[in-house]
Amino acid sequence: MQGRLDTYIETVQSANSLDELQGRIKDLRNVFDVEHVVYHSINSLGQQYASHTYTPEWETYYFAENFERIDPVVQGCLRRFHPVDWRRLDWSGKAARDFLGEAVDAGVGHQGFSVPIRGPSGQFALFTISDRRSDAVWEKYTEAHVRDVILAAHFINQKALEIERGSDEADVAKLSPREVDALTMLAMGYNRAQASESLSISEHTLRVYIESARSKLGAANTTHAIAKALTLGLVIV
Taking the CA of residue 150 as centre, how many other CA atoms within 13 Å lie in the half-sphere pointing to its CB? Predict the structure, then answer.
């Protein structure tokens, strides 16, 4: 997987337009050996860019029925910063269950793993892989490849932003190794006590690193700092 992903990232870097990037995104289906891959981005002006391997018929039907209003993947990821397995989302409502049935019938697959991404100026993007593996096989697969999926998601999003603004020379905040470590621990779900213990530092020192990183990133709070660090690829979890 790692060798294929490294080669793939090199080909993505050569994309100079969103049309070219669309073809590169579809290539990820073979890289990850899954049935479907989706990247969907909405910028602060409401402009959308999407690339996926679903059928055109499902895409047309999905938007015609306004399924984004009830889709637990979309609604769940709008409230999350961390990647999520579809099985952890709320499918208990009748509308959600009916929607899932139609999605499966359309070939989407009942298993999925989605990475929510928040970019500059209110941009929101969602990167998803989906398949029809069994629960046990899917759980083993995602545990083995979660880091690769997150890496690909944020790399594609960063490339899309570069193409959209016409430059890849945007300044990126530089965090110290300890600042990266501190945000990584929190991004992985550790509380401050657990993070400071894992890093063998005091909670006070941890707080200093977090506040320093927050200031460098221009974030409003710690959660915002984690989201920005993930979006910029400064933190990978």
Answer: 23
In the block, tokens 């090199």 appear at 10
Structural domains present in the chain: 2-165 (3.30.450.80), 177-231 (1.10.10.10)
pTM: 0.70
157 to 6, 123, 126, 127, 211: CA distances (angstroms): 16, 10, 9, 9, 26
pLDDT for residue 171: 55
* Residue whose structure tokens are 């920005």: 228
Q: Are strands 84-85 and 111-118 parallel, antiparallel or unpaired?
A: antiparallel
Where are the alpha helices (H) located in 166-221, listed in sequence order? Answer: 177-187, 192-198, 203-217
Find the angle CA(120)-CA(124)-CA(130) to the nearest 5 degrees.
140
pLDDT digits (tens, 9 = 90+) for 12-38: 878 888 888 888 888 899 999 999 999
Do 222 and 115 meet the contact criterion of CB atoms below 8 Å apart?
A: no
